[in-house]
């Protein structure tokens, strides 16, 4: 192999690597350093290895951290419950409507995230027909939906649903339908075939969908800003206000790193757990 | 396991402790009956008004080109498809509307369809588990079945760690372990290479004899059908052309399609001259009892299988046997025999297989362009009615598909 050929992969990697270094590695380093500094915007920052920024972040904002993961978790579960049947229908039942339905899933991306969330503000306004119906059904006890946990979770679910549906669809479409026939041939009912064969074999899609939904949802602040009230602030809102309102950059950086660390640890635990046979439908355990 | 991992064990050990269970299933095994079954997909009729009676414990093969409806028929027995009209009976009871998981049948799929996320043991035990068989019994039966197909040591492996032939045997074990009344096999050897296929053909037939379960086998490979089956249904365009034992289908095909699909299409156009006589290709008159099925003046085809023809130079021809004159077009060495193409008339070519009994005899075979005479014994000629001439050639009948050593 000539030198030229051996260099090819590096040339192909170069643009991506350059991009990552400039827009990810360098800012990350800068942010990490900032999170350990003390000072103000006016007087400038000094590196004092102020780990207290981290302990403050956790102690003062534990409520927002917990709320963020709670909201993101519930929204992810809803996305999965709505997304799996939808992806299943598109993959197996849609026939010639398949492409149209896939397009419908992706269509919201043609409008910006912000506009769509603001539109939800109108939809969930106290005077909107949707809220009237909810009131009539007794599902809005205080007479309003906006500025409740439900509104924020609904917004998160709506905004991140495509990120759940697309990986699920890919996993389901790859599924060999003969395997489902084989399941039925071997005395498994429709439900048993689903839980013993379809579900374990689409687990990679489920894992990808959960990650793609949960991670951005946990750091989101747009939904809580527009659809929540003061009692629904998520950690994203805290970080945003620390940076842009209070301009306490060090604390904001420490909060960001704490959020990142928690997600990373949760992710590693989850992947380790999800990657084992236990979650992949071990036959010996299941009866 | 000794030897190559792909070689099936030659002895499936019929005297194992498990024999009582297997023979119990054999006695409870059932036949399959199809009554006026039609299956339509939109405008396309895949199976047309089919009647079929498969006996208990029979090795029954549906043979035909792709699109002839054989797989659709199998899927209707399995319960993956419901017939548009007509009835399917398994072991005497109507299974209309019953889903696959409620039928006493199991299927071996062409693509094996092994569950990739389960070990071999879990794959084979899947059906028993769903039937709530006690755990200890599952373990014992799965172990015995894996031993039967020679894969005991691979029990804890996943299907993707096995070769194609091994996967095929797991698929067979996974179906057989349930002791179904009817085992359905959809071109199970189609994806394997020739040598492996031959070994598994023998093994499959042996297993079928041992367990006594009714096998319904789908294939487009005529040799496979002739080797294993008790009876063969030759299918074409959603209909059964002929349903008989392998010898009859081979020696006495009922139509030009069957004659062409099974073996080499050695068809000579003929006209019936009277109740006991035909005239072949504007040539000699040949007496035959078969002519009685036809009316005088009717056109038909005379079929003689390639290995039953003899070639000789005109002067040496046996005068007491029926025969026709021809010209040698080509001669092909096949190892055990020599295949000769002989032009009898315009558009009428006959294939002859001459055994290579001695090198000297082979050297003296007439060469290309030589005038020769073809002869055969009267009992080796069979008449079939003239059907659509295109049908006769639609089967995969290139000369390389000769069935050597069959019969």
Q: What can you see in these coordinates?
A:
The complex is a heterodimer of chains A (287) and B (407). By secondary structure, chain A is mostly helical. Chain A has a single domain, classed as MetI-like fold, CATH 1.10.3720. Chain A contains twelve helices and two strands, in the order H-E-E-H-H-H-H-H-H-H-H-H-H-H. The longest helix of chain A has 42 residues. The relative contact order of chain A is 0.13. Chain B is elongated, with a radius of gyration of 24 Å. In chain B, a hairpin with a 2-residue loop joins strand 11 and strand 12. A six-stranded mixed β-sheet of chain B has the order 6-7-8-3-9-10, sandwiched between helices. Chain B has a five-stranded antiparallel β-sheet with strand order 13-12-11-14-20. In chain B, strands 15-19-16-17-18 form a five-stranded antiparallel β-sheet, with no helix packed on it. In chain B, helix 4 packs across helix 5. The N terminus and C terminus of chain B are likely disordered. Chain B contains eleven helices and 20 strands. Chains A and B meet through helix 7 and helix 8 of A and strand 6 and helix 3 of B.
Say what the CATH topology of chain A is: MetI-like fold
Q: What helical percentage do the residues of chain A reach?
A: over 70%
Order of helices and strands of chain A: HEEHHHHHHHHHHH
Total strands of chain A: the figure is 2
Average pLDDT rating of chain A: 90
Biggest interface, residues from each chain: A-B, 23 and 28 residues
Biggest β-sheet description of chain B: 6 strands, mixed
At CATH level 2, the architecture of chain A is Orthogonal Bundle
Radius of gyration of chain A: 23 Å
What share of residues of chain B is helical?
25-40%
Q: Alpha-carbon distance between the termini of chain A?
A: 55 Å
Give me the number of helical elements of chain B.
11
Distance between the termini of chain B: 34 Å
At the fourth level of CATH, the homologous superfamily of chain A is MetI-like
Report the major sheet of chain A: 2 strands, antiparallel
Tell me which oligomeric state these chains represent. heterodimer
Overall average residue pLDDT of chain B: 84
Widest β-sheet, arrangement of strands of chain B:
6-7-8-3-9-10
């Amino acid at each position: 192999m000539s030198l030229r050929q051996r260099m090819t992969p590096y040339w192909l990697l170069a643009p991506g690597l350059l991009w990552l270094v400039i827009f990810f590695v360098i800012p990350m380093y800068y942010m990490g350093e900032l999170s350990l500094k003390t000072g103000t915007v006016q007087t400038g920052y000094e590196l004092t290895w102020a780990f207290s920024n981290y302990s403050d972040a956790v102690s003062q904002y534990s409520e927002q951290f917990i709320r963020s993961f709670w909201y993101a978790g519930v929204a992810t579960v809803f996305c999965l419950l709505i997304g799996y049947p939808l992806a299943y229908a598109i993959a197996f039942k849609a026939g010639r409507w398949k492409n149209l339905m896939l397009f419908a899933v992706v269509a919201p991306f043609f409008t910006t995230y912000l506009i769509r969330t603001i539109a939800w503000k109108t939809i969930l306004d106290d005077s909107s027909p949707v809220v009237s119906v909810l009131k009539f059904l007794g599902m809005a006890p205080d007479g309003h939906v906006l500025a409740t946990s439900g509104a924020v979770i609904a917004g998160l679910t709506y905004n991140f649903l495509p990120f759940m549906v697309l990986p699920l669809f890919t996993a389901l479409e790859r599924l060999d339908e003969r395997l489902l026939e084989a399941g039925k041939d071997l005395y498994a009912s429709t439900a048993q075939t689903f839980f013993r064969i379809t579900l374990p074999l689409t687990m990679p899609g489920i894992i990808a969908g959960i990650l793609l939904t949960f991670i951005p949802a946990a750091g989101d602040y747009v939904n809580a800003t527009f659809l929540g009230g003061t009692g629904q602030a998520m950690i994203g809102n805290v970080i945003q206000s620390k940076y842009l309102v209070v301009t306490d950059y060090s604390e904001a950086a420490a909060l960001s790193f704490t959020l990142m660390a928690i997600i990373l640890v949760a992710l590693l635990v989850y992947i380790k757990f999800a990657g084992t046979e236990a979650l992949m439908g071990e036959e010996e355990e299941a009866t | 396991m000794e030897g190559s991992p792909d070689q099936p064990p030659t002895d499936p050990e019929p005297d194992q402790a498990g024999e009582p269970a297997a023979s119990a299933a054999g006695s409870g095994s059932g036949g399959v009956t199809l009554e006026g079954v039609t299956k339509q997909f939109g405008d396309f009729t895949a199976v047309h008004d089919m009647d079929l009676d498969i006996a208990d414990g029979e090795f029954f093969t549906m043979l035909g080109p792709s699109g002839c409806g054989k797989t659709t028929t199998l899927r209707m027995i399995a319960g993956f498809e419901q017939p548009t009209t007509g009835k399917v009976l398994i072991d005497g009871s109507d299974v209309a509307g019953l889903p696959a998981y409620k039928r006493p049948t199991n299927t071996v799929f062409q693509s094996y369809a092994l569950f990739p996320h389960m070990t071999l043991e879990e794959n084979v035990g899947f059906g028993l588990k769903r039937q709530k068989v006690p755990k200890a019994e599952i373990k014992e039966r799965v172990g015995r079945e894996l031993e039967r197909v020679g894969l005991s040591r691979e029990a804890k492996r996943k299907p993707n760690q096995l070769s194609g032939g091994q996967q095929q045997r797991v698929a067979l074990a996974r179906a057989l372990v349930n002791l179904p009344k009817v085992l359905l096999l959809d071109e199970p050897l189609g994806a394997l290479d020739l040598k492996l296929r031959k070994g598994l053909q023998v093994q499959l037939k042996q297993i079928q004899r041992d367990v006594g379960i009714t096998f319904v086998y789908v294939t487009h490979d005529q040799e496979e059908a002739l080797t294993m089956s008790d009876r063969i249904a030759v299918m074409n365009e959603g209909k059964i052309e002929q349903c008989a034992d392998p010898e009859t289908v081979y020696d006495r095909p009922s139509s030009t399609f069957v004659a062409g699909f099974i073996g080499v299409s050695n068809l000579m156009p003929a006209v019936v001259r009277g109740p006991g006589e035909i005239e072949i290709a504007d040539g000699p008159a040949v007496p035959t009892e078969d002519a009685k099925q036809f009316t005088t003046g009717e056109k038909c085809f005379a079929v003689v299988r390639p290995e039953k023809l003899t070639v000789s130079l005109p002067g040496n021809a046996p005068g007491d046997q029926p025969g026709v004159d021809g010209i040698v077009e080509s001669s092909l060495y096949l190892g055990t025999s020599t295949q000769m193409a002989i032009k009898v008339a315009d558009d009428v070519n006959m294939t002859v297989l001459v055994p290579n009994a001695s090198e000297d005899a082979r050297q003296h075979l007439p060469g290309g362009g030589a005038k020769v005479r073809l002869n055969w014994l009267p009992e080796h000629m069979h008449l079939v009615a003239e059907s659509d001439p295109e049908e006769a050639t639609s089967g995969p009948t290139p000369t390389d598909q000769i069935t050597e050593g069959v019969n």
